[in-house]
Amino acid sequence: MRTTNILLCLAALLLSVSCIDDKGNYDYENSESVMPVSISGLAQDTTIQQGSTFTLEVGKHFKVNNDDPSRYTYEWSITEATTAGFLPTRTYIGKEENLNYPVKLAAGEWTLTFQVWDKQKDLYVKAQTHLNVVASPLDNGWYVLKDQDGYTDFDYITNSGKMYPNVLAPSEQRVRGEAVKMIYQNERYYHVQKNADGTSTTLTNQKALHILTTKDFCTFNAKDLQLFKSFNDEFYSAPTVCAPQDIDISGFAMNVFLINNNQIHSIYGMSNNIGKFAAPVVGDLDIYPCMINNAMYELVFDRKSHSFFSARAGGTTLTPFTDPAPNSSLPASVSNMPYDMIKMCAGQGRNYSGDYGFALMKGVNDGKTYLAHLRYDYSGTYSTYPIMTFLEVPSNSGLLNNECIACPASGEFIYYSIGNKLYTYTNASGIDQRDHLQLTLPEGEKISYIFNYRGAYGNNYNYLAVLSNTTTGWKLRIYEPEGVDIEEIKPEPIGTYSGTGTGRYVMYRTNM
After folding, report:
1. Strand locations in 307-461, DSSP E?
2. Residues 487, 435: Cα–Cα separation, whole Å
3. How many CB atoms lie within 10 A of CB 45?
4. pLDDT in tens, 163-200
5. 127 backbone dihedrals φ, ψ, rounded to 5°
6. Rounded distance, CA 481 to CA 107, Å?
7. φ, ψ dihedrals at 310, nearest 5°
8. What tens digit of pLDDT does each residue of 416-450 get?
9. Are strands 45-49 and 123-134 parallel, antiparallel or unpaired?
10. Sign of torsion over alpha carbons 251, 256, 260, 262
């Protein structure tokens, strides 16, 4: 063995000497002649927005130096910049020298690679740049929830009037079904994120957008529109029927309530949680899909027992209102009432002391229609009698034929619409004319949603949003009432916007 090792060492030495002394006649090619193409000028870091079109033009944004363009093919691709324990996924986005790419990436860090292939020599060179993809700059302003071709999306309009259409479409996160409602949660949302190594991380105090449709319920990170949860993940144990109908957040407690398939679920917001709804309230219930909140709880109506109840976050049962009526003009009790619910609407949300609403109800015995003005007050108890006035609606009132109704921020009247006309109805007795025409929109429009947004806690805005649909899309007009608790509306809108799809709901987001 020792002899063998010595021989191998001598052979290696002889070879090295022969290489040093070799004066052979060889042809050498420099690197430029082997691969004459080169890429230069690509920016090292670029920030782009979801939904935009990312363009890189040769000669303008970068250079490709080559001797014969016909010899080369081109390829643009995208991969995740960082991954947690798994291989990045490569997506090919272009095969031309110039890049023209509609950005359909999730917000985050990505790597863009440009590769030039020499077909003759079967060699390639490549250049890379770092991409920071950001979501649409969602902030305060107007959000129009709409649907088109069986999917729900939303358009965002800043307070200065700049519009960002189809916000979810670029990241391919539109939600299945017709639009129902959306709500913004500005704090105290929790989400458990699963890591690649099998561990979990709980994200705390997140800002969230909740979107309800007829076929799904999705929660998104309000900062970057990453999907937190869809319907089956929203619950500890998902209901067998997916039929989201209403969602609301009660006052400062940040308790979140959901009505799905006429059953009510909740998340208690005053303690750590994982952002999942508990089992529905126990009982043979048929909850009307509308809630009125106060600082802690929600006022709901059960159509089977004909009763108003208070719903508490985390509660397994509904709490009846035990206080009697304060005067004889009101129903003696709001439990087992001799009235059916026709339609119910809630006013401005998240007032700490309580919020208003209206309920259009029909007498079981007399067949007459009544309008109940509701206030769900919070004064240290959740069982205060909730009806303020209860008056018969004349049989000739247009309110009986309403298509949409809306509660003012305060005031003893109600908004309603029929076709392209907006009315108010004065909720008072002894008045000959209770219906008042406020607006007539152009022919071909049909009002689909109305809401009065009024600022609180130092915010002095007072807006009436009127959403309508035409054969080509939605229109949103923002009006100002003549004053607080005044029915008349200033004739000209302070803002008019339009978009594609069928508009169903309008949300006005503030810092609250």
Report:
1. 307-311, 319-320, 339-346, 354-363, 369-377, 387-392, 404-406, 413-418, 421-426, 435-440, 446-454
2. 11
3. 8
4. 999 999 988 899 999 999 999 998 889 999 887 777 88
5. -135, 150
6. 40
7. -105, 130
8. 999 999 999 999 988 889 999 999 999 999 999 99
9. parallel
10. negative
